[in-house]
Amino acid sequence: MSAAVALATTAAALVGAQAASAATGCRVDYAIASEWPGGFGANVVVTNLGDPVNGWRLSWTFSGNERITQSWNGSHSQSGARVTVTNAAWNGTISTGGTASFGFNADSGTRTTPPAGFSLNGVACTGSTTPTGTTTGTTGTTTPPERPAVENNFAVTREAAHGDNRYTVFRPANPQSVGRTLPVLAFGNGACAHTDNREVTRALTFIASKGFVVVDTGSVDGSPNGVPSGSPIPSLLTDAISWAAREQNRSGSPLAQRLDLTRVATAGHSCGGLEALIAAQDSRVSAVVSLDSGLFADGSFGYSRSELRKLHSPALFMDGGPSDIAYENTQANYDLVTVPAVLARHPQAGHVGFITGNQMTDGMTTVVQFLDMVLYGNQTARDYILSPSGLAAKYPWTVAGKNF
Known about the structure:
InterPro entries: AB_hydrolase_fold, CBD2, CBM2/CBM3_carb-bd_dom_sf, CBM2_carb-bd_dom_sf, CBM2_CS, PET_hydrolase/cutinase-like. The strands form 5 sheets. The chain has a 9-stranded mixed beta sheet, sandwiched between helices. The protein is about 15% helix and about 30% strand. The two termini are about 25 Å apart. By secondary structure, the protein is of the alpha+beta class. It has 2 domains: about 25-130, Immunoglobulin-like (Sandwich); about 150-400, Rossmann fold (3-Layer(aba) Sandwich). The chain is globular. Residues about 1-25 and about 130-145 have low confidence and may be disordered.
């Protein structure tokens, strides 16, 4: 069954106070994508027809006993039949003519029908774009864009994870100097190396210097830590997130109350990328990066490509071109995911160029820009990743994107 509703706002403002004679308007396309006994899935696209929106919430009332059980690309709340979905960190800004999309699954005891109406940021959607006139509370100024993370260059400390020798931590040496709480990246190594992380030290130091805390699998000195290597153990990455949560509250920790556990990502190289893709199913994860990796068609290592349907957050797939042994896997995984995704390819990088080769700086810059776009909604980072004049214009990169 498929149904769509197209509506537009006509009242005072979409977000807070607008400038004089600001135009407001939107279209909401609500489609029931699939149904099954006792439930259904829906996709929703919000198109902004008026002035740019920075932060949105879409509300509606179900006509029956529908109850949302899972959502992606937005956060939902529900009281009775009333539902509100708010933007994720990465899709809160909608330019004029731009769109934001999300989806959800819901339980329903009866046949569901599309809601009769929507409201965007408290304004009813009715079908036209309307000048609003002057509103109070404006300052006549705009907030400058936040500094892109990639422009940071903090000194980095590499240290053993407190109380858990399964991990090495890469972090800004002085977390207080960063100016904001720090996002967390749990990283899996190539070959699923769970004791020795020397191969990725340079790449992860680069990421940490941009204001991230990276928790990597492997003891800081390569000593045995009781974890076998060679096969993916995704729980190592979810345990790394739990370690960060404990460190956030540990008295005396240099990271105490300095972490932002609402901005968490997983990433990994080669076999570690498999760990990252599976660990990204964790509800705490808001972004995932697969470097020269991907789940195999034959279910090698115990994980089939059906796992990709469980992803709920944006994904970046990077490969080093036809000489990369993960080239076909990367393409196939990108094609299969239904979340917002980017495929970035550098044909000179091969399988390890992003980690140890001449393409390390370019590759890790791309990772940082993607995370900045997704976790913080930084517009400069978004332009770098998605604009034709960004990464796609840098020879010899090729870039594809979908569902943004």
